[in-house]
Amino acid sequence: SDPTLLILPGDGIGPEVMAEVRKVIEWTGANGGPRFDVQEDLAGGCAYDAHGTPLTDGTMARALAADAVLLGAVGGPRYDALDFSLKPERALLRLRKEMDLFANLRPAQCFDALKDFSSLKPELVSGLDMMIVRELTSGVYFGEPRGVTGEGDGRVGINTHRYAAPEIARVARAAFDLARRRQGRVCSMEKSNVMEAGILWREVVEEVHRDGYEDVELSHMLADAGGMQIVRAPKQFDVILTDNLFGDMLSDVAAMLTGSLGMLPSASLGAPRENDRPRALYEPVHGSAPDIAGQGKANPIACILSFAMALRYSFDAGEAATRIERAVEAVLADGVRTGDLMQAEGGRPATTAQMGDAIVGKLSGT
Ligand code: NAI
Ligand code: MG
User: Fold this and answer.
1) Who has the most CB within 10 Å: 74, 197, 205, 212?
2) Is 224 annotated for ligand binding?
């Protein structure tokens, strides 16, 4: 039977961009790409409206059983006053936690038509294709002890940067596996010059490398120097492997290499299951964009590229993924632009649906 793809459109522009992804999913299934048993469910504010909770146990169970989950975005000002446990964002936190998604993948890929849009000089980013793999479930955001103690001048804020060897090993394996499907190079970033957790990080990454990944080229960089190199010469990188804190910063820096938030996909992967497929959640980096929701202004490309990542990393359909990426590239080269891209040169304004249709049109033409 067909693999299951659980779609959670969510709130704000989530359902708008997901409607365009649906067109791409249908096209792919009808044209030699994988076919899916597509299921749809509520997550975020819309689930709260319907059920009084941002993610029901039933939806959680479907997500755990699905071969992959594709999420639009959650949240919005209507829900800002809710108790923390009922907030739409809790849906995402619960999905990440229960699916045990420890590897966050953020590609920084430059589409040539948008190279003037980057914060860097066009020649530095033209042809750029790198991927940051960030550890997502441990490190200083979770380590104990934590808290603020004392009073007045005696107050102390405490967080603990803690990594256990298996936590490093599993995200390292994810990065090496990924590099094999790309250019075969991993650069690991930590601060082993000043942090014990960094010394262990480097040690364990080298152990994992020796133990079955010697065909992948491994290098190391201190995370501060790495940040500098990402901005100075980003094309030197294939896969960057790093921890939760450094990955948070480095992936936001890398995002600015390619321009609009409306272009950026992401994936979060867990451990491989019996069927060899890791648990996986694919989603655009952007949020629910309440300022433009319901107006047909949202750029659906980030979500469409997230589906392409699902094809490549969950369903071994790299060829179908590449076709989608080429169609996106071609549409951008034609000058089709949602509002967020209008400052790029030679653009013609398009609505969300017109952008989706143009991409499907290119797919059909190739
Ligand atoms: P946002 O990403 O929703 O919007 C930031 C800016 O980028 C806005 O001006 C928006 O119009 C623009 N933008 C975002 N996506 C776009 C797209 N596809 N096309 C064109 N323009 C786009 O971040 P913001 O405003 O901080 O948060 C809004 C809501 O989304 C909040 O409730 C927040 O909690 C939630 N959020 C949800 C995320 C998720 O579901 N993963 C991630 C980030 C925020
Ligand atoms: Mg961040």
Assistant:
1) 74
2) yes
**Is the confidence at residue 347, as pLDDT, over 90?**
no
> Residues with beta carbon inside 6 Å of ligand 1?
13, 17, 73-76, 89, 92, 261-262, 283, 286-292, 298-299, 302, 338, 340
Q: What is the pLDDT of residue 113?
A: 86
The whole-angstrom distance between residue 48's C-alpha and the CA centroid of its chain comes to: 24
Q: Which of 261, 283, 354 to mutate to test the pocket of ligand 1 (most atoms within 8 A of CB)?
A: 261
Q: Write down the ipTM of this complex.
A: 0.98
Which domains are delineated in the chain? 1-111+260-366 (3.40.718.10), 129-256 (3.40.718.10)
* Distance (Å) from CA 91 to ligand 1 centroid: 16
Burial of 151 (0-12, 13-18, 19+ CB in 10 A): exposed
- The bound ligand whose nearest atom lies closest to the alpha carbon of 264 is 1
> In terms of DSSP H, where are the helices of the chain?
14-30, 45-51, 57-65, 89-98, 122-125, 165-180, 196-210, 223-232, 244-255, 301-314, 318-333, 352-365
Q: What is the CB neighbour count within 10 angstroms for residue 56?
A: 17
Q: What is the structure's pLDDT at 117? A: 78
pTM value is 0.94
| Alpha carbon distance 117, 114 (integer Å) | 5
Measure the CA–CA gap between 158 and 142, rounded to whole angstroms: 11
Local structure of 352: helix, strand or coil: helix
Q: How far is Cα 351 from Cα 139, in angstroms, rounded to an integer?
A: 41
What mean pLDDT value characterizes the chain? 95
**The pairing of beta strand 185-190 with beta strand 217-222:** parallel
67 is catalytic: no
Q: Phi and psi dihedrals of 149, rounded to 5?
A: -120, 170
Query: How many angstroms separate the alpha carbon of residue 230 from the centre of ligand 2?
Result: 16
Q: Is 112 annotated as a binding residue?
A: no
Evaluate if residue 355 carries a pLDDT over 90: yes
